[in-house]
Amino acid sequence: MRNKSSAPHVWDFRRGVATARVLTQLGTDHGLSVDDTLRHTGIARALLDDPKGEIEAHQEVQLIRNLVNALPHMPTLGLQAGTRYHVTTYGLWGYAVLSSPTLGSAISMASRMLNLTFSLTVSEVEQEGDCITSSFHSDHLPPDVRQFIVDRDRAAVITLQREILGRPLPFRTIRMRRAEPSAEVAEAYTSLFGVRPQFGQDSDCALFDANLMQQPLPQADSHTAKLCEQMCRQLVEGRKSRTGVSATVRNRLMSTPGHIPDMEEIAAEMSVTSRTLRRHLTAEGATFRALLEEVRSTLAEELMVTASITHGEIAERLGYADVTTFIEAFRRWRGVPPSEFRRSRGVSPEAGRVARRRFVPR
Prior knowledge:
By secondary structure, this protein is an alpha+beta fold. It has two domains: 2-214, H-NOX domain (Alpha-Beta Complex), CATH 3.90.1520; 222-352, Homeodomain-like (Arc Repressor Mutant, subunit A). The chain has helices spanning 18-29, 34-38, 57-70, 77-82, 92-98, 103-114, 143-165, 183-193, 222-237, 244-253, 263-269, 274-283, 288-306, 311-317, 323-334, 338-344; strands at 2-6, 15-16, 54-55, 122-128, 131-137, 173-175, 205-209. The strands form two sheets. A five-stranded antiparallel beta sheet has the order 1-4-5-7-6. Strand 4 (122-128) and strand 5 (131-137) form a beta hairpin. Helix 5 runs antiparallel to helix 6 (103-114) and helix 10 crosses helix 13 (288-306). The longest helix has 23 residues, at 143-165.
């Protein structure tokens, strides 16, 4: 019996300019100018600084080609690139993955995310027996940049896994289609994966134990969680600024992805009673419930517009007991149900009902 989560066989989609920033910085760190890195891509330097900027897949491929042609003496350049893609590189999607309750749900989310953001390979995750196989398909890519892209995408997934799990994922086997490389390059792969790859195989894939999918996540390391908190804080601050105790409470509500604390918990951390905390908030014209809904409503709207994530998954990440309670709350905030809100923003409401191609471990 086999459970499968496969990405759509489409890779030529627009993606955020963050990937161009990562690749351009890689080039400049190795002595290339920004102009050399961006040559023939059609990407303006000014676009690199646009947080909402987007580029076409073929533009990223040309940027990669520039790197490969300019730095042919660096056979591990793709691996170096991939390790620069962190959870926070993916924006609010990173928060959605980091706040997943288990490794299985995080991998399900990450699989969808990687094929909707920066990935140029087509990924597939499947379970057979007690083993999970994560594959990377690349035959659709130009041969001159294919190995760089496979290395980049695999290293990016490894980096993402380590950040959400808080430690390396123990792989059973790593298979690579490429021929046996030099000892130096083979060692670079071994260092990345934690196990020496088998080269000359018929596919690019990684195998690990299926029981790891049920493992609760530790909400990653403190550094990554802090970056996600800052990202969410900037998002919420853009709606309404806060100062004093109100700001402290709101910041605390965003500080632990996947777990939104209650008033008693925050009051205890501030070494005051909940009654005292309530009095301070009242003096500032705020209430705990209003602050909580401010955070939840802002994150909910952004997740629905920018992420292929179900209403149930959003409810889970925002601390709701069930999806019905979340839908009722959203209707109270916006006056319309989540599906109608998504439709008004040009997002298919179906994304909120069914996690298409979602991997569900047995």
